[in-house]
Each structure stands twice: as structure tokens, then as C-alpha cells.
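Recall that a protein's primary structure is simply its ordered list of amino acids. Everything else, from secondary elements to tertiary packing, is in principle encoded there. The following example makes that idea concrete.
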Amino acid sequence: MKKKATSLFLLELILAMLIFFMAAAICVSMFAKAHEMNKKSQELNSAVLVEKNLAEMLSRAVSVDDACRLVTQLYPHAEISAPVKDTGSGITEVRIALDDDFLETTGQSAYQLTADLSEDRDLLTAGLHVYPADDTENGTSVYDLTVENSLSSNVSASAGNISDVSASAGNTSDVSASAVNTSDPLKSGTEEAAS
């Protein structure tokens, strides 16, 4: 009788340990998934902040050349390519290498911030994109932002005093952001705001 009770006790103990290890494995996988989601959320927030800062600076530009000058003030090591004139309007591409903390770097970059600048009559358009450095060829960006800025009001405002410049620059820029991955609720939809 004692042998039967001992084997039953061992069977119950093995079953309890099996259930415990299964629950532990599920918890560990949930913690790993939560860590990955936190990392992606921080990456997205940093990309949005970097692009919005650059968009705010570009809203003061009066031409593509002025936009390039403003970008090099903020990012001294930015690479600026010559405009491509194959189409009707030339596009100037600006590339900025960013580290893990989304700060400009001259060494190994973790991210690449690109700005495609074009000028069409009275409108400066900048397509801003943040890519992981190892994924710039595939086109999978962390965040995309398109900035359209009326140049005529910036030119007339720059002739006035400083308070006029900030007031008119705030009313002339149209910023629209389109997210890449619509399955992520943080990235879905289109965001429009006047800067």
C-alpha cells in the first residue's frame, strides 16, 4: 500500500512541476515580447521626435538651398547630394547617420535619416524618412513624414521683423505624417497638424 501511495505522490509532484514549468515558459515569452514592444515604441517615439524637429526647422526655409543650410546647422555631418533633374523638379537628398540614441554620428550608424527636398514654384516639399541602417535598401522605414511649406510667405515674412517671421511661419506650414505599418495602433492613420 505504501508503494502505491509513494508512486501516486511522485506522479502528482511531476505533474505539478510540469504545470509550473509551462506557466514559467509562458511568462518568460510574454516578458520577452513586452521588452520587444517597448523597444519598438521607443524607436518610433525617437524617430517621430527627430523628424518633427527637422520639419520644424525646414518650415523656416525660403528655398532648397536655405533648407540645406539649415540642416547642416543642426547636423554638421549631413551628406547632401546634388539635385536630380531627370524629372520636372530637382530633388536634393540629405542623409544623416544616427546612432542608437538618435543623435548624429560619424561612426557606425544604427539609423539613417533621409530628407528628400524639392521646390516647385512656391512650395517646398520635404519627405523625411528614418530607416534602420541595415534596412535602407528594402524601404522599411521606422517613420515617414511629409512636410509642405509655402515659400512665398516665408520670403515676405523674412523681410519683416523677427516677431512677424515666427507668426507667419507658424501659419504657413502643412505637416502630414503617414505611418508605414498599419497593424501597429501607434502608427496607423494620417496625422495632420499645423506647425
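Strands lie at 79-80, 91-98, 111-120, 123-132, 143-150, 173-178, 190-194. The two ends are 83 Å apart (CA to CA).
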